[in-house]
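Worked Example 4.2. Consider the chain below.
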Amino acid sequence: MRKNTLTRYAVAAAAAAALAATLPATGAYATSPADTPADSPAASAPAGSLPLAPVTVLTDKPGTTRGDLFVSPSGIAGQYASGVEILSQDGRKTVWSHAVPAGQSAADFRKQTYRGKPVLTWWQGTGLGGVAEGVDYIYDDHYRKIAEVRAGNGYSADGHEFLITARNTALILAYAVKTADLRSIGGPADQKVIDGIVQEVDIRTGKVLFEWNSADHVPYSQSEQPLPASASTPWDWFHINAVKPDAGGNLLLDARNTWTAYEISHRTGRVLWQLGGKNSSFTLKAAPGQVLNDKDRIFAWQHDPQPLGNGLYTFFDNESAGVANTGSGAVSELPYSRVVTVRLDSRTHTATLVASDDQPDLLTASSQGNAQPLANGHIVVGWGSLPYVSEFGRKGELLFHARFPAGVNTYRAYRYDWR
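Applying the procedure from the previous section yields the following structure tokens:
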């Protein structure tokens, strides 16, 4: 049951307003070479290739939101392929799937709107979770590729976020390995670091319209990630993993390894406020019935902030991470992962944890994860490195819960009405 001090009706209204604000204007498709359509909607993997991992439905109660599940299951060598997949509402049937080549992975598979029409989008490449290299893809509703989006200025697209804006541009992420002088924080003068890059790219032309680099705006001292033993080992001090449009035309960024969400000016790149971490602009507190973590923070090692409007935000709160941002040797600030809803009060500069949905089995996800607030007040959760997908109702009741085989996970999971 959800620990809730905020009515789900208020969340539903905020989510509906946020969703409506993202709808783009109508227009024509950009032209791009199309893939050969599949013979049937569910057939997309090359003949003889490995299958995508099956899903076992553990809970399926009345009231589950209408719409298909969008997942990007990771593969297991010699057993399952990696790829993207649309599953039926109950998770038991495959509507469409697409396996990616061996050695690659896929991430952030979802339905979006491009030039007024529904499209399928995902990232595909190598190195997700580290210094990744990949391409973002756009397919039409006949499962034909219509566009590719690549990072500009010498960077390669990372798989954590691919979001199409109302201007038919793409917000994407990239990682950059640089050398930094860290003597001011007790490090070496020549430490290799991994900076986080945000770009807005015009989908039709590939032109970079906006670029933001974490090293230009955030001190290295804000990191919660310990320095590596060697200066030649890249220090993933920031680990950007999300970018979202927010009120006033600003952008909301999320950095896992500073435990911080940053509101930045879309015009200048200036940090307007910070939530969480070592230099929060807000005093953090928990409403009655809610709990902060062991460091008195609302979240730690978090992913996927979602602006709902009226000062409300949701986060996938991992509360756990592995050594050097890996899945091994994980440490935790709470003994379970959760989805948190936070209310910001700009007048009093307070951030209040008002609701939380805990992982149903009280497990921790040491990496990845997302929470999709739906317009009806439900929340769909991809549990990241844990092999689960869930849907919670308005009162926090678990309506849907499914599991991949051990060793398989989906970076994010969504539910959309897809035709």
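Confidence is low (pLDDT under 50) at residues 11-41. The first helix runs from residue 8 to 21. Compare this with Example 4.1 before moving on.
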